[in-house]
Amino acid sequence: MKGPQKNSKTFLGSLWPGVFFRLSLALLFALLLTGCARSRESSRVDTAMGTLVSQTLYVTREQGQTREIQALLENLETQELSWRLAGSQTARINESAGDAQGAPLSPEMERWLRALLQVSEESGGAFDVTVGSLVQLWNLDELAAAGEKAGSDSLPGPEEIREALKECGFEKLRLEQGRIYMPQGMRLDLGAAGKGIACDRIRAYLGGREEITGAVVSVGGSILTYGEKPDHGAFKVAVRHPRREGEYLGILTLEGEWYVSTSGDYERYVEVEGKRWHHILDPHTGYPADSGLCSVTVALGPGGGPEGENGAGTSPAGEGADCRGLLADALSTACFVLGAEEGARLAEAFRAEALFVGTDGSISMTPGMELLFAAEPESP
Ligand code: AMP
Ligand code: MG
Questions:
Q1: Is 131 in the pocket of ligand 1 (CB under 6 A)?
Q2: CB of 330 closer than 6 A to ligand 1?
Q3: At how many degrees (to 10) do helices 324-338 and 107-122 cross?
Q4: Nearest residue by C-alpha to atom 7 in ligand 1
Q5: Which of 136, 189, 281, 306 has the smallest count of CB within 10 Å of its CB?
Q6: At 379, is the pLDDT very low, low, confident or very high (cuts 50, 70, 90)?
Q7: Residue 236: is its pLDDT beyond 50?
Q8: How many helices (H) and strands (E) does the chain have?
Q9: Domain ranges across the chain
Q10: Quick check: 57 and 210 in contact, CB under 8 A?
C-alpha cells in the first residue's frame, strides 16, 4: 500500500508544475475572453420613417452600428416603402395601376405582399394593403396637424368615400412571379406594416454582426427584442397608456427574440364636434374603425407566425423569409379593426399574443399574453 501511494505522490508531484502552468494559462485566457466579450450599451434616439426610433444595442465592439441601422431605415423608407416619394418601389407600383403590363417586384416586396395578403384573407378584409386611395382621401396626417382648426367640412363626405372604396380591394390585386397587376386607381399603402418590416430588416442586420449580443429597438409603435442583455435578465417593454400621455398601461417581460406592435387611435387623429377621427380605417365601411377599441398590442415570439408547414414566423411566400415584424404590425392594425373577440381569434391563427384596450378602459388579452403582461397598479 505504502509503495504505490508514495509512487503516485511522486508521479503527481512531477506533473504538478506543468498542470499548474497550463491551468493558469487557461484561466488567463478565459479571463481575457470574458473581459473582451463583455458587452456595453450603445444607444441612439433619432427619427426615421416619420416616427421616433430608439435603439439600445449591446455590443462587444462599437463600430457605428446604430448609425448603420439609422441609414438602413432611411433607405427602406425612401427606396421601398414610401408611397409619397417618387422613385420608391411602392410609388412605382402605384403608378403602374391600370397598366396591363403591371410592374416588376423585388423578391422581398413580393414576399411582403404575399404575407400581407394572407393577413387580409385571414382577417376577412379588415386588413387591406390596397387602402391607399381611402387613406389619401382621409389624409389624417394633415387633419391631425390642423388639430382644433379642422371642422366638419374638412372630413370627406359619404360620396367621396364610396368612390375611394371602389379603388380598394385586395382581391382585385394580382401577383405573379416577380410582377404585380393592379386595376386603375388602386394605391398600395404599406403604412400598417412598414415599421414591422423595419424590425425584420434590423433583425437581419443584427444577425450578421457577431459583436452585437443583444438589442431593443423601437420604430414608432413596433419593437424588436433580440439576443440577451449583459445581465441575462429579460427585456422589459412598456405598453403605452392609450389615454394618458407619458404613462404606461403595463410592462411586457420578454425573453429573447420578440416582435411587438401597437396600433392605437391616439397616434394620428382629429376631434371634430366631440368625435375622434383616427387613422385606422375599416375597409368595409370606409370610415375610421369603430370596434370599441382604443389600442391593440400584438406580440410574436419564438414559435409565432402562420400555422402550417412553413413553420414559425415564415412567410408562406418564401423559404426562410422571416417576417414576424411585418406580421406583428399588420396584425395589430387588423385586430384593431376587428375588435377584441375576432381579433383574439386572428392573433391565435398566427400564434401571436394580443392585448386589447377598450374605449371604456376595459382590458382583455389572449391566454399567452397573460404570461407576458403585468399591468401598472394604477392603470387604466
Ligand atoms: P398602424 O399604425 O400600424 O395600425 O397602421 C395604420 C396605417 O395603416 C394608417 O396610417 C394607414 O396608412 C394604413 N391603414 C389604415 N387602415 C388600414 C387597414 N384597414 N388595412 C391596412 N392598412 C391600413
Ligand atoms: Mg400596424
A1: yes
A2: no
A3: 30
A4: 192
A5: 136
A6: low
A7: yes
A8: 11, 16
A9: 41-375
A10: no
The string of pLDDT tens digits covering residues 329-353 is 999 999 999 999 999 999 999 999 9
The reported pLDDT for the residue numbered 6 is 38
Residue 336 CA to ligand 2 center (angstroms) comes to: 9
Q: Which atom of ligand 1 is nearest to the CA of 261?
A: 3
Nearest ligand, measured from the Cα of 123: 1
Q: Answer yes or no: is the C-beta of 127 below 6 A from any ligand 1 atom.
A: yes
Omega before 288 within 30 of 0, i.e. cis? no
The rounded Å distance from CA 41 to ligand 1 centre is 33
CB of 111 closer than 6 angstroms to any ligand 1 atom = no
- DSSP bridge pairs for 56: 43, 216
Cβ-count burial of 12 within 10 angstroms (0-12 exposed, 13-18 middle, 19+ buried)?
exposed
Mean pLDDT for the stretch of residues 240-246: 92
And the C-alpha cell for 205?
Answer: 442586420
Taking residues 110-123, report their average pLDDT.
97
Q: What is the mean pLDDT of residues 126-148?
A: 90
Give yes or no for a contact between 110 and 203, defined as CB atoms under 8 angstroms apart: no
Element (H, E) at 25: helix 2-37
Residue 378 to residue 380: CA distance in whole angstroms: 6
Ligand nearest to the CA of 295: 1
**What residues pair up with 131 in beta bridges, in sequence order?**
187
Q: pLDDT band at residue 38, thresholds of 50, 70 and 90? A: confident
> For 41-375, CATH number?
3.10.520.10
Specify burial of residue 278 (Cβ count, 10 A radius: 0-12, 13-18, 19+).
buried
Does ligand 1 lie within 6 Å of residue 337's CB atom?
Answer: yes
Q: Does residue 170 have a pLDDT over 50?
A: yes
